Amino acid sequence: MAASVFRVCPFMIATITQALQRGDVAAALSAAQAFAISDASNPQAHHWLGICLQQSGDIEGARAAIDEAINLAPDRSDFQISRASLALAQKDYQAAEKGLKDAVNLDPNQLQAYVTLAHMALARGENEEAIKQFKLAQRVDAEHPQVLLLEGHIAQYGGRTEDALKCFTAAAELDPANPLVQVSLGMAYGARGVWPFAEQALKNANALEPGNPGVMRGLIRSLLQQEKFPEAIDVLSQWLINKPSDHSVRMMRAQLRAQVGQAEETLEDLLMVNAANPGNPKVMAPLVNVLITLGRLPEAIDHLEQALTLNPKNNAAWSLRTSISAHQLEETQTVLQRWLAALPESPQVHESLAQVYETTGDLDAAEASADKALSLAQNLPFAQFIKLRAEIRKDPKQALKRLEILERAATNAESQRMVLAWRGLTHDKLQQYEQAAESFRQMAQRALVQHPLPPIFSASENTGPDIAGTLLWAPTGTRVEIVLQALSQPLGKRLLADRNLPHSRNDGFGHLRGVPASAEAGTATRWQEAIRDSGLEPETAVDWIPHIDAYTVSALKGTRTVAVISDPRDALLGWMVFGSAQAYRFHPNENISAEWLAQTFEAFATHLENNPEAVSVVKIDGLPAQAVSVAHALQAAFALDQAPETDTLGKTILARGGFDNQFASGHWRHYRDSFKAAFDRLTPIAVRLGYSEN
């Protein structure tokens, strides 16, 4: 086919291209329209009109203009490419592919057509077709930046990240002002974890093409990987200047602001998003959380009530409203009844009711509500566990079958740990102690995020004067919670049990959230000052200290120690299965935890033997049966006017479903074969403290 001959109008084309380059689409379109009217038979005029119409958003008009250009000059491959580009913009991939293939049939040197066909093949997952088109593009110009970029994308698709990076780097050297090249380079650096380089490339892309959401999100990711949170917030803020109604970006900024502790700023963002979409559960949850953080509980409740007024069928809002009142049982029950009235067939409300009934000790009602919830939806973990605990009480063998179902559904470490814990307790109830031990050991492999074990320091050379005060200590695994609760009334404010709180004293002695870098970090003076800052005098205070060693008792020379202990072997088993008030991490290898616990007991025993007048020992192995004798022992140890309430001491720490969160005294004997090495390590110190060897 002979090539078409048509008039070239350099002035008109220059006017159009200059207007497009400066972003003045209206001026470009006006010039193109004038060009097409004045020279209606010129295919180039219609081609430029189509380009300008596409830029202005008039897709139908653009298609008509480009079709007219092709009608006037059917042998022009560049017109076919423009038609294909328009089809791509409309996601009409079939038409785009046809146009590109028509273009290369007309002109085998149309590099851009091969490149685009290759990228389309990659998007479809057709790697071989992409390679075929890439090789055709290579024959036209192997060193063209677009070809190198394509080669990098093919390598990236094949998992060859290093080769991809080389190609993108070469393309960037040839065409540094191409935003797609910079984006590709940034993503390649990110795939290799070279985040500073990824950041720079994506900053380049963002500067070349401001407003591209993909570039912005890639840049944010690179900054977050480097923990450059303030810079990430700045990038999002710049975006929002031009697009203030982009609520997805505003939510992202709110999340980052919350992460860096900008509560007020976080609230500002969340309120704006909520105003645009009132009651949205994705907004409501963080909005309520930040209001609670700021101490504005009534406002949090108001927002939830507004959301429920707008949509009484909003399960997520009801769930939040219930949780926000969890500290007040009566209010929680009222909210649940409202929720039940609004959504009587909601599985979530029946699951929540089951949890409340279980908390109040109405186990039959809890089971009935759990049954109702599970009849409506099987995928309810809390309801499943409530039903499980009912079965453990009534039919442990049936409970094992339910555990098989729960085990298959457990997809994270926390849920897997819970399943293993209840499996172990079920086997324990069935007196299948070897199976129970295996479950407990597997549970320890999925440790919760807890505090690391504090190091055990040797004695310090304290040459200062003796100081007055009383320490309360219980080894990890001994149920000190019971004692703390029992002592809270007779001791009142004198009892300091704040070390497990977020803003507790940090005086270097057994702080739950960190230990001193060295023994020299803690001093008696520091301990005294911290107590005085609490509004007490050290002489009258009783300080619950989670961890004790030779350094502690020597540095606090002169203080009395009241030790609440149990058999070290029971303590180890209790720590492994039920955790501890100290929240110290149980090592996956029980022998390592046993070694640390043994050293802790040994340090205490040495202190007891060297300073018997300064130490009182209260054994709580016999609780709850021996609550009276334990109460009198505590009364004597603390010189109380009255003994702690025996009802409090007699009540063991209840876990879910009415189960005691501890084993009976001497329960370790059932596991002596399974954990032989660990118990062998603890037996000598147990005997030293007056417990039976066997």
General description of the model:
By secondary structure, this protein is mostly helical. The protein is built from 34 helices and five strands. It has a domain at 470-688: Rossmann fold, CATH 3.40.50. Helices cover 64% and strands 3% of the residues. The protein is elongated and about 110 Å long. The termini are far apart. Mean pLDDT is 90; it is low at 1-5 and 512-519.
Q: Which helices and strands, and how do they pair?
A:
Elements lengths: L9 H12 L3 H14 L4 H14 L2 H14 L4 H13 L3 H14 L4 H14 L2 H15 L3 H13 L3 H14 L4 H13 L3 H14 L4 H13 L3 H14 L4 H13 L3 H14 L4 H13 L3 H14 L4 H10 L4 H14 L4 H14 L2 H14 L4 H14 L1 H14 L3 H17 L3 H13 L24 E4 L6 H12 L3 E2 L27 H10 L8 E3 L5 H6 L4 E6 L2 H11 L11 H21 L4 E5 L7 H12 L7 H5 L25 H13 L6
Parallel strand pairs: 1-3, 1-4, 2-3, 4-5
Helix pairs in contact: 1-2, 2-3, 3-4, 4-5, 5-6, 6-7, 7-8, 7-9, 8-9, 9-10, 10-11, 11-12, 11-13, 12-13, 13-14, 14-15, 15-16, 16-17, 17-18, 18-19, 19-20, 20-21, 21-22, 22-23, 23-24, 24-25, 25-26, 31-34
